[in-house]
User: What shape does this take?
Amino acid sequence: MTFSNSNSWAQALSYDQKKTFHLVMQVAGSALAISGSVIRIQGYSGDAFGTGHGIFGLLALIFTVISLIGGVINLYIKKKGNIIKIGHALVGCATLILAFVTLIMGMDKDIFRIYVASSGANTLIALAVISLIGVMFPACFGVYRRIIN
Assistant: This one.
């Protein structure tokens, strides 16, 4: 996602700078997501994976770890095959989709709607869907471009 040509700030960076920035963002974001998930799961008194929100959250967590492993493989492998780059991009896209679905399902819970009102929750859900589409469209186009080349 960091490499998107539609990012005005990214156009000024070299490929190596983009790659470094992507690495830093992914490691920081993944560390926060993984640690937050572990803290939340440990502090949950009920069945953490008994709802769609919990199941999608667990899947997002698993895909985050897989994406990190794929990123490290992609970073250190000497002969970079296109299949590894495509696989890493696809897992990253799947991770984002799962994370957004988890977020949306969390915003649709009754407890969330009590705090932000139903209209506020609906607005946030709509913004999350728009953000997901905005983030995924260039990413899917990039994966498609890698596949056909």
Observations:
- The radius of gyration is 17 Å.
- Residues 13-148 form one domain.
